[in-house]
Write a structure and sequence with these properties.
CATH architecture: Clam
Shape: globular
Number of domains: 1
CATH class: Mainly Beta
CATH topology: outer membrane lipoprotein receptor (LolB), chain A
Number of strands: 13
Distance between the termini: 16 Å
Order of helices and strands: EHHHHHEEEEEEHHEEEEEE
Helix content: 10-25%
Largest sheet: 13 strands, mixed
């Protein structure tokens, strides 16, 4: 059954999506994908003068390091574990599962526990499938809130333009690889579901992602069993609603 819900992104609508994305782990990994994979896109090969015109020399250098590191891969897959806690540090929720991302703008996020749920972005449409509810929500990908999959699979120029970036590198100790941390603060905070984002890499591989939202809640996402540049067929990012499920369409 098809049900149209044009008010999803009206007042309160975006909050519903954010809650759903948190449940499946997407608030963290569906903002790492549209950025990290973008360095190899045609748009990201353009001079970054426009996005860095107002940046200080230090910030421009930090953004260049971020662009270099995220440009090392055009596809990524692995496992994720996510934990969300309130500003006092109390654990609110946790989830784990698998994910795949591919430039440009393709992602597949599958939560295995505590709930089975799948989010697929095919470049134009985002499908949120909840088998427990026998329900699929279909939305325009361009209208989705900024999330981790977008960070990993999208336009790097847009990231450099929309965020302030600070880079720090922790010294290597006892043979361990250097930890690189990038702190991102949105230039227009009222348009983002979070206040700060921290991306950590080890030896050029994403290790964790942390968001602090507007309520002071912390969402931490860690990665494991990562493969950089795996051969992922585009068919992995297509979705056909199963027979008998309700399909909610957000115009």
């Amino acid at each position: 059954m098809l049900i149209k819900r044009p008010a999803l992104f009206a007042e309160g609508g975006a909050k519903q999506w954010v809650k759903a994305l948190i449940r499946v782990g997407m608030l963290s990994v569906c903002a790492l994908s549209e950025v990290a994979l973008a360095q190899s896109s045609p748009a990201s090969n353009k001079p970054a003068n426009a996005s860095q015109a107002s940046a200080s020399p230090q910030e421009s250098a930090d953004k260049a390091v971020l662009a270099r590191e995220l440009g090392r891969f055009t596809s990524l897959q692995g496992r994720f574990t996510q934990a969300q806690s309130d500003k006092a540090g109390k654990l609110l929720s946790s989830s784990q599962g698998r994910f795949e991302v591919k430039r440009p703008g393709l992602y597949r996020w599958e939560s295995e526990s505590p709930y089975a749920q799948t989010v697929i972005g095919d470049g134009k449409t985002v499908w949120l499938y909840d088998p427990d509810l026998e329900q699929v929500t279909q939305s325009q990908q361009a209208a989705m809130p900024f999330n981790a999959a977008r960070l990993l699979s999208g336009d790097l120029d847009a990231l450099l333009n929309d965020f302030h970036v600070t880079y720090e590198a922790a010294p290597s100790t006892q043979g361990q690889a250097q930890v690189q941390r990038f702190h991102l603060i949105p230039k227009q905070a009222d348009k983002m579901p979070f206040r700060t984002l921290t991306l950590s890499l080890v030896a050029g591989t994403p290790q964790s992602l942390a968001f602090v939202d507007t309520l002071g809640q912390l969402t931490e996402l860690s990665f494991a069993e990562l493969l950089l540049n795996p051969a992922l067929a585009d068919s992995r990012f297509t979705f056909v609603p199963p027979a008998g499920v309700d399909v909610l369409i957000n115009d």
